[in-house]
Amino acid sequence: MQKKFFNKPISRVVPSPDGFRQTILIKQHVLEYALPLSKTASALLGLKQLIEDKGYNVHHPVDVRFSGADEPWLSPAHGRKTCYIGVIMYRPFGKDIPYEDYFRDVDVLFYKLGGRPHWGKIHYRDASDLRSVYPYWNDFLKLRDQLDPNGVFLNDYLQLVLGVGR
Fold first, then answer.
1. What is the pLDDT of residues 18-32, one digit of tens each?
2. pTM of the complete model
3. N or C: which end of the chain has fewer CB within 10 A?
């Protein structure tokens, strides 16, 4: 993909404080998934193929980062070494650039590879999808109901993704 912008592909590996301290002043739409580490190559090659096959004009960079396994029940990295892959579409001068078809296709690709969406970024998953990728989903919902039986801490988004009502 970089060959479209440079004469040869480039990459760099830096400690995360050096690689993630850039301030981005342009508004943007972002979709990010946490995938099993073993699916990293399939996800990146699939993303490249998807962009080429559909002829999507996309913004860069594609963010790729790694983490160890987490213990929290609804952590995207719960129970597995993880590769996070994020795609971005900028909104220069407040202008929306078409992104919805691209993001929906990426969402399907990453979900099929066992990905879990980033809770705070765009995704198209609801409770029925998420239940299948989080082993402690039902335990979390029981605990949530015990701690907030009146739904004080629920909002429209949480009702959709958790599959619970007020």
1. 766 667 778 899 999
2. 0.84
3. C
